[in-house]
Structure formats: C-alpha cells, structure tokens
Amino acid sequence: MSVQLFADLSVFVLSLLLGFEVIGRVPTTLHTPLMSAANAVHGIVLAGALLITLSADDALGYALVFVTAAFAAMNVVGGYVVTDRMLEMFRPPRGEPR
Amino acid sequence: MSAFDLVIRLVYLAVATCFVLGLHLMNSPVTARRGNLLSAAAMAAGVAATAVVLVHAATVRPWAWAALAAGAALGSGAGLLLARRVRMTAMPQLVSLFNAVGGGAAALIGVHDFTLHVSGTHGASLPVVLDVLIGAVTFSGSLVAAGKLQGVVPSHPILFPGARALTAVLVLAMAGASILLLTGNGGLAAFAVLAVAALGFGVSMVAPIGGADMPVVISLLNAFTGTAVAMAGFALGNGVLITAGALVGASGTILTKLMADAMNRSLTAIIAGGFGTGDDKPIEGPAG
C-alpha cells in the first residue's frame, strides 16, 4: 500500500467518524433541509467531473465528460438552491434584523 | 510539493472544513441558512480550485473543454430552473432527482476510469468497482423514489411473484462481476454486467417500498451517493472528494436513522419490508 493511499484511507475513516457526530443534535423540523444540504455537498463530484477531462481524449471520453458534468452541475446548483428555498421558511418574521 | 500544489491542497482543506462547519450549523434553525451558504461558498471555491488545476495542467483537449463547459452549463441551468420553479410540496422528489444525477455522475467517473484501461489489464480497482456499483444503484433507485413521490410510478409497494428471486439473481450477478473485475479476469462484459445489474438492483430495492417511507429511502440513497463520491475520490486520487463523500455517507446514514425514528419506523423493517419479508401491513406505533 502506497503512502498516498494510506493517507487517503485515514482521511476517509476520520471523515466517516466526523460525519457520524456532526449532525447529532438536529431537530426533526430540519430533517428534510439537512437531507437536501447533504445532497448538495456530495455535488463536489463536479470537481471529479472536471478532473476526468484531464484524461478524456476520444469521442467516448468527451461524451462521458459532458454527461458527468451535466449531472454533477445539476446536483450542485439545484441542491443548494432548493435547500436555500426550504430554509427560507425558517427565517425570522419580517422587520427583524437577520 | 510545489507551491502550486500546496495552495490547491490548502484550498481543498479549507473547503472540507467549511463543509463540516456548514453541516454543523444545520443543527439549529437559526443558523441553518448560514450553514448552507457557507457550504455553497466552499463548493464554489473547491470547483474553482479544480478548474485552476485543469488550466495549470494545460493538457486538456479543446473538445474536452467544450464538453465540460456545455455539460456544466446545461446541468446548472436545469438544476437552477427546477429548484426555483418547483412547488414546495414537490421538493422531496426534486431532492431525490438531484441525488440520482449525483450518483450517476459518480458512477460515470468510474466508467471513465475503466475505459482508460480497457485495452490493457482486464480488471478494475476496488474503488472503481464500488463507485460504479453504489453509484448505479443510487441512480436508478433515486429515480424510482422520485417517480413514486411524483406519482409517475405507483406509490404502493410493487410486489410480484419472483421479485425476491430476481433480486437474488441481481445480487449474484453484481458479486460475480465484481469478483471477476477485482481478480483481473473480467473485461468489458463483466463491467457491463456489473453496471446493468446495479441499475436493476436499485429499481428492485426501491419499487417494493411504499410511498410513505420514501423520505427515509431518499435519505439512505443520499448516504449511498456520498459513499460513491468518496470511492470516485479514491479512483481519482482527490482528497476533497474523499472527505466530502465520507462526510455525507456517514451523516446521511445517521440522518436516515433519525428520520426513521421520528416516523416511528424501523430502518431494517423498511428495507427488509421492501424485499417482501412481510411489511405490507402498517406498523402499530405507541400512539396508534
């Protein structure tokens, strides 16, 4: 096992443990927005879509880049916008400073 | 490590930190919106840093740039339009749709990785196999879940004779294809079997579950996508994908359990019930 792979694996395991703890106190009303927010976070797959362009050099590669980028961008942009719309419902009443 | 690499890695570290803080701020209604905005800003920074990596590498073919730009523009536009236009009541199925495309993107990264080596060794690494497997299950499963909530697919549990046998066959096909690929004995055919069986399994997993349980199922599939993205991160050797994917995989799993508890449902009953082990009758909660 290479040093890099071991470092990646360590980061993976520690991130899992962090993920188990980070949302422990979420109230029931925030379950759906939190699901949507977490959904937006895995939109980081868009960075992966960017990285595969480095090795795309034929028609199949370009087609995969196109579809992957479209899917991932839809995940990111839609995910954050729809989460924000859900959370708008939790803002304080009008007139109060936000 | 060159100065350029160092800067990119520091940006990635900041991005991962902000994702964690953003999710943590979602614990309270007062800070939740700020948390989402922080997370979005981190996402923009992470994608921008990756774009800088591409420009810096200067080896991206013009057609690859064009495909990337066109795909990103199309996807962003569609996502923005859907997220803005959809009714409040239709949001869960929209989240499921976004989750489906996220899982699909992760699976396609695995497909791309496989196509690079297809003429050489006939095998695939564990991250690539898991990436395609989990990503494809999430893609089809989330589409069925969204369809059920939207009313495109019947929302009642879809059960038919032989459904369990079909699921068993799909599981065996996925396991067999994975073993062939991991031991270096599989080729394009084994890879295709893996992808198709995983797509089928996503459908056969979600179809028998009733519409009322869909939010829990969507949350579970969301955690699956996170895991698939982390696997894509291993395949690409990219730390921020690993961190963010693992974070969503774990927090999504906890959230799934919290949601099931809040609905007075047992997670195993929902999933096992989906496989026809006798969960057709409503569970009697303490409050009736």
TrEMBL record, chain A:
Entry membrane topology: Multi-pass membrane protein
GO function terms (MF aspect): NADP binding; proton-translocating NAD(P)+ transhydrogenase activity
Subcellular location: Cell inner membrane
A family per Pfam: PNTB_4TM
InterPro entries, A to Z: NADP_transhyd_a_C (IPR024605)
Role according to the record: The transhydrogenation between NADH and NADP is coupled to respiration and ATP hydrolysis and functions as a proton pump across the membrane.
PANTHER family to which the protein is assigned, alphabetical: NAD(P) TRANSHYDROGENASE (PTHR10160), PROTON-TRANSLOCATING NAD(P)(+) TRANSHYDROGENASE (PTHR10160:SF19)
Name this polypeptide is given: proton-translocating NAD(P)(+) transhydrogenase
